[in-house]
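Predict the structure of Choline/ethanolamine transporter FLVCR2.
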Amino acid sequence: MVNEDSNLEKRDGTPEPQSALRADPSISAHPSVSAHQSVSAHPSVSIHPSVSAHPSSSAHPSILAQQGGLAQPSIPGTEDLSVIKVSKRRWAVVLVFSCYSMCNAFQWIQYGSISNIFMNFYGVSAFAIDWLSMCYMLTYIPLLLPVAWMLEKFGLRTVALTGSALNCLGAWVKLGSLKPHLFPVTVLGQVICSVAQVFILGMPSRIASVWFGANEVSTACSIAVFGNQLGIAIGFLVPPVLVPNTNDQDKLAYHISIMFYIIGGVATLLFILVIIVFKEKPKHPPSRAQSLSYALSSPDASYLSSIIRLFKNLNFVLLVITYGLNAGAFYALSTLLNRMVIFHYPGEEVNAGRIGLTIVISGMLGAMISGIWLDRSKTYKETTLVVYIMTLVGMVVYTLTLNLGRLWVVFITAGTMGFFMTGYLPLGFEFAVELTYPESEGMSSGLLNVSAQVFGIIFTISQGQIINNYGTMPGNIFLCVFLTLGAALTAFIRADLRRQKANKETPDNKLQEEEEEESNTSKAPTTVSEEHL
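Done. Here is the predicted structure for Choline/ethanolamine transporter FLVCR2.
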């Protein structure tokens, strides 16, 4: 925007920081910016990053009146998109999200980890208990688009509040199902929690992009996914400890009530923390890519056109399929693990839970390592392919050792498999954002999760029937076949890293910690050399 009024130099008596071209002929505007009076710069367009005003200096009015002078856009209620800073609040936001995601994931697996005990308490079949897990997958499919629309229309805070509130409500509804004939009530509570999950699964990559800098996004996404995996791990470990296998229905109801009260209290506390901590977005964009994303976003953007563009992206379509195969296999294994372990090791409900814990804990370690590696190397395609191949190798070894009669061997092989299988999940999210930038992170993540839920339902039902009729090894071989297909398709994905290309447009851009207590005056991201001042 051309600034021709010298009175705009000050506002309320305070010099206003400006990115103005000086009269010095040695400084010129970036070629993408026109200095003509009739042309005003879009907020996303700024002068070359090597040219900026020193914060302590003020230009003479006669200089500011030059035709070539450019002033920073200053629109009340909007962010200055030329300032790239990261907020200290970002760690609190991702931590709170990770915690209520953990709570929701615990409620997903709390029935499956002791499926034989709940079958005995409610007097229902194994398939009915499996559906308490699969309802999480089923509800996600039709609700993805409405929730993705809400994420774009109302933002992160509204979606976070809705998800944590539903998670809390579902936890308390389950307390009304402490009698053997009240199985429908526990189904209702689980369905409410499954709806809450729709407001959670698509958030990690969105939170990472909105709140974290270019060199932190993969690590932040891993931390956000970390909470979900930790919840599954606790869901494998705690229920077998809190709810012993007994035929005394009153004693069983008492122990189940303890588990339900604990999770209800935790869910309530986390809902309160979401109200206090969660903000819509930071004051300034944390990266060049996010700044451009804000500038390019349109409130009238069509969801249908966005989906069409995503499905025209062949690399993304391949990733949707391969991610679904891997995550679907993980969902099936998690749901059926108790049944498989009890099949070979009767009475080992606690150890079955510990094996599940080992799978997820090792997977969280793998996710953190891969996230840090991606932030340093940016080798998305290579890392994803290697992790996928090692997932297949781990699954084959686990399949061959499950029936050896030695639990310690199962712990080792299951942990190795989990390191890569669970560690792959955040890789898929971040790779999808790279392949689809600047499309909505919520939409790309949502489509990955829809694929995972569809394959999860298919694999859980199919593997469960195979285990019932033919045993555990044929069931696991069934998963190995599809993981082989997924590894082969991953090799055909081309590494078109669009977000990285956007960030490289300003390679020398430094992230600055944002002090919330400072005044609203902000400094331009780079400074002009001393001789030009």
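The longest strand covers residues 10-11.
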